[in-house]
Amino acid sequence: MRNKLFFVFIILFLGSQISAQSLQDIERLKKEYEEAIKAMRGAEPVDEIIETEKPSVVELAPRIEEVEEVDTLEVLPYFGYDFFKASVAIWENLPVHADYRLGPGDEFIISLWGESQLRSEHIVDRNGNVYIDLVGQLSVTGKTLKEAKAYLTSRFEQVYATLKNPDPTTFLDISLGALKSINVKFLGEVSLPSILAIHPFSTVTTGLIQAGGVEQSGSLRGIHVIRDGKIRSTMDLYAFLLQGKTDGDIRLRDQDVVFVPVRNTTISVDGAVQRPGIYEGLPGETLADVLAYSGGLKPNAQAQLAVERTVAIDEREHEDNAINAFYVDREDIKDYTVQDGDKITIHEIHPVQREVSVHGQVKKPGVYAYQDSMRLIDLLNLAGGLNDESYWKSVFAARAEVIRRQENEEYATVIPIYLDRLRQGDASQNILLNNLDQVVIRQNPHFDPPRNVTILGEVNVPGVYTLTDNDEVLDNIITKAGGFTDLAFEDGIEMYRQRQRVVLRDYSLPVMDGDSVHVPRNPGVVLVTGEVYNPGYIHYKAKRSLREYIESAGGFTRDASKRTVSVIYANGDVKLRRYIFDPRVGEGATVIVHSKEEREPFDLTKFLTEVSSIVASLATVFYIITRG
C-alpha cells in the first residue's frame, strides 16, 4: 500500500509540472498519429499475388555523373540574322522610286494652284483608267509619275487655258496617295514561306523583313530573285552588311519569287576577335576571309589560330576519330580554305606581370609599370618626386627600403636606401630596379600634422586650438579660450570624441586630436518626458525633488512605471531611481518616466479549463492505481 501511495505522489508531482491538454488536443493528436501510421504502411494491401521477374542485379560500380557538353554553336550568335528582327514601319517609310509605274489600285492626287485651284484624288481602276470631271476618262497604267504628269498636263491644258506656255499662271502637280501592294512569293529558308502582299517599293532586304526574315538554316550569301522563270539577281547579304554594297538589293515586282537556299557552310569563330560568331563561307574562301567577317584579331590575340575540322564522311576511317585539329600561323591564313563545320579559335596571349610598387610616405603610392632600365629615382618621380620641400619634411630621410624577391631564397632581400643622399644626387643610391620590386618610404615620426581641439559656445574666444603638449586636459583648452563668459552653464559642458558624447566629471580629462567642446548657456529648466500627463520643460529650482518635478508635469499616467525613472544630467551622466531614494535633479537635466512592462492579460476561462483537465487526469491515474 505504501508503494502505491508513493507512486500516486510521484504522479501528482509530475502532473503538476506538465501543462494539461484539452480533450480537443488529445483527439487531434490521436488523429495525426493514425494518419502517420497509415502513411508508414503505404497503400492498401493487395488481395492477389503478383508474379514478378527475378530481382535485377545491383550495380556496385561507382556512378559517373554525365557532364553536359556545351556546344559552341549554341553559345555563339549567328551573324547577320538579327538584321531582319528590326521593327520598321515599311508602308510609311519607303521612298518612291523614279521608275515606279502606276497600275490598278494606285491612288494619285492631282493639285492645281495659282490662278485656278483644284485638288482631287483618283484611284486607278482594274482597266488602268481614271475618270476626271471636265477632262474625261484617262489611261495612266504603265506610266511613271513623270510621264503621268506630262500626260495629265496636256489634257488639263484643254480645260484650263492658264496652264499653257509660255507664261502659265496655273500650275499642276501629281503625287501618290495610297498604293497598291504587290504579290511576291517568299520560298526556301524564310520565317514565313508563302505568297505575301508587300509594299510596292520593297527591295530584297525590306521584302524579307516583311516576310519575317531568314531562318538560321538559310543562306545569307546567295539570295535569289526569280523573275519570269529566270534568276534576275543574286544577293550576298554579307557584302551589304559589312561593306554597304547594294548591288543585289533590287526592287521587287509583282509575281517575283525570292528564294533563300540552305546555308552553304557553318563556321564558328571564337576567342580574341572583334565579333565572335558563326559565319557562312563561300566555296574557295579562306581563313583570312572568315576572320575579316569577324572584324579581325584583337591586339591580345595569339599569332596562331586553332582549327578543329570534321573529316568528310567519305574520307573517314573511324567514326570515333573524325575530328582533326591543327594550328595555322597568322601569316599563312590566306593559304587555308575553310570547310563546313570548321571551328576556329583564337586564344589570348597570357598576361605578364611587369610592375613595381611604392608604399608609404609618397604623394601617389601604388603599382607602376616596369621597364628594364628603370631606376629608383624614376619610380619615385612617378609617385610624386622628392623635390617638394614642404612634403620632404614629412619623409623619413634616414632610411628607405627596396624589397626584392629571390628565386632561390624563402624570404625577400631588403636593400637599404638613404633618401637624403639619393636626393642630393648620389648615384650609388639610385639602384637599378628589378621586376616586382617593392619600395617602402616611411613617415617622419617627428613631423605629425597639428592636433587640434574645437571649443565653441559660451567662452570668451571660441575657435580651434592646437595641442602643444601630450598632457593637455580640458581645463587647458578652456584657459586658452579665455575662460567662461557670464552666461556659461559650466555643469552642462558637452564634449564629443569620435561622434560619441563624453560624460564629464570635471575638467581634468585629457583631450585628443579631433575633440570638440560646446559650452551652453544656463538653460534654467528641467525637461520631464515619458509617461506623464503634461510632458515638457519645468522651471528649475535648486531645492525641488524628483517627485515635485514629476507632479509639475501632471504626475504619473496609468501606464507609468513609478519605480523606473531615469535622470540624465546636462553633462551626460545618468542616474536611476532606487527604491525610495530619488536622485538629485540638476539644472538642464532630463527626467524620463518609463512605461510599465507589457504583460498578457489573465484569461480566467483558460486557467479554469487547464486546472479542470489536470484534476481529471490525476483522478483517473489515482483510480487506476487504487483499483490495481
Overview of the molecule:
With 628 residues, this protein is of the alpha+beta class. It has 6 domains: 83-87 and 181-260, Outer membrane lipoprotein wza domain like (Outer membrane lipoprotein wza fold like), CATH 3.10.560.10; 104-176, wza like fold (2-Layer Sandwich), CATH 3.30.1950; 267-346, Outer membrane lipoprotein wza fold like, CATH 3.10.560; 355-441, Outer membrane lipoprotein wza fold like, CATH 3.10.560.10; 452-515; 523-628, Outer membrane lipoprotein wza domain like (Outer membrane lipoprotein wza fold like, Roll). Helices cover 21% and strands 25% of the residues. The chain has 14 helices and 30 strands. It has a 5-stranded mixed β-sheet. It has a 5-stranded mixed β-sheet with strand order 12-11-15-13-14, with helices on one face. Strands 17-16-20-18-19 form a 5-stranded mixed β-sheet, covered by helices on one side. Helix 1 (2-17) runs antiparallel to helix 14 (604-627). The longest helix has 24 residues, at 604-627. The chain is extended. It starts with a helix and ends with a helix. Residues 4-26 and 42-67 have low confidence and may be disordered.
Number of domains as seen in the coordinates: 6
Helix content: 10-25%
Q: Remind me, CATH topology of the largest domain?
A: Outer membrane lipoprotein wza fold like
Shape label: extended
The CATH superfamily of the largest domain is Outer membrane lipoprotein wza domain like
Provide the low-confidence segments as ranges. Answer: 4-26, 42-67
Total helices: the number is 14
For the secondary structure, the number of strands is 30
* CATH class identity of the largest domain: Alpha Beta
Strand content: 15-25%
Which structural class fits the helix and strand makeup? Answer: alpha+beta
Report Rg: 49 Å
Second CATH tier, the architecture of the largest domain? Roll
Strand order of the largest sheet: 7-6-10-8-9
Overall pLDDT metric: 85
